[in-house]
Amino acid sequence: MAKPACYSVKAFSATAATAPLAAATIERRSPRATDVQIQIQYCGVCHSDLHFARNEWHFTQYPAVPGHEIVGKVTATGKGVKKFKVGDTVGVGCLVDSCRTCPECRAGLEQFCNGMVMTYGSTDPILGGGTLGGYSQSIVVTEDFVLRLPANLDPAAAAPLLCAGITTYSPLRHWKVGKGQKVGIVGLGGLGHMGVKFAKAFGAHVVLFTTSTGKVADGKRLGAHEVVISKDEAQMAAHAGSFDFILDTVSANHDLNAYFNLLKRDGNLTLVGAPEQPLPVAAFPLIMRRRSFSGSLIGGLPETQEMLDFCGKHKITCDIEMIRMDQINTAYERMLKSDVKYRFVIDMASLK
Ligand code: NAP
Ligand code: ZN
Ligand code: ZN
Question: How many Å apart are CA 92 and CA 143, to the nearest integer?
Fold first, then answer.
């Protein structure tokens, strides 16, 4: 098969699990009939980018270009593109394609499709090799996986909605979080701070659990009604058996069982954090009150657009710290120290 027409763009990539990210040149396919070409203006820095660049999930193909919180301007469209035109501000999240025909795709839950193509971390069905993410100047995506950004949102502060936003919005909606419920959010990082904002917007009584004593005031400013320092056993015990729902966004090893004990009868804890190592689950905290434990993965395309529109309507964006592309390795080190308030976003104009 002939190699499709391509063009070169600048990017930042890792060449091995232990190598820092560095400047590289990568190839993008020239737009085909249903493709949208996007000049990337901003890309959020998700903790998944770090897990992936360092092969902590054991499926990374190198060179690895992370980045799946992409916002940019449309610079070209294929002949068949109907929804977008040159100049539109658009978003791309964690998915760039799927099979389109399986029950998951037909339900708008493309994230659970066996044939889903992730923005990075999949095999590129057109070019071969690994898919290459948003730490780059431009990307080409089939129009069904491109999202419309509400015009009233700051594009840089909206970029992390494409992963941190949908990953917290989706389970809070699935578990019908709302008025009259007591809801816990564990971890105040990129995902956690959006979990707090959405749970508050949905009308719940929101309790933030943090290991960082310095984040209490921010937790309240972001919308938490109460903040619990999770290392303090007395503070944890005061909430025993009282939560309807807990969303756990922690990126590293921690004790899940301490949180199961805080759920009411039939309460649920949903894990979205994806630590490298397995987390031990004890039987008794779950069986005592018919509590349940589940997971959730980003969200499908229809729900991601719904989330963006909700954010436009309610003026919700992320609290960000803008960085240059060449600051990415320092940003990763700060992320590992839980020192990010509350999402790094790369100004892609800095990639020259
Ligand atoms: P992040 O910004 O680094 O935030 C993680 C937070 O977890 C930290 O700010 C910290 O909050 C807390 N934390 C870190 N180490 C901890 C430890 N040892 N014990 C207890 N708490 C700790 O990361 P993120 O971008 O929000 O991502 C969080 C996790 O979700 C990552 O594993 C990521 O890969 C995963 N993820 C999953 C999905 C999905 O679809 N399921 C999507 C995106 C990301 P405090 O300082 O408040 O304690
Ligand atoms: Zn992510
Ligand atoms: Zn499918």
Answer: 10
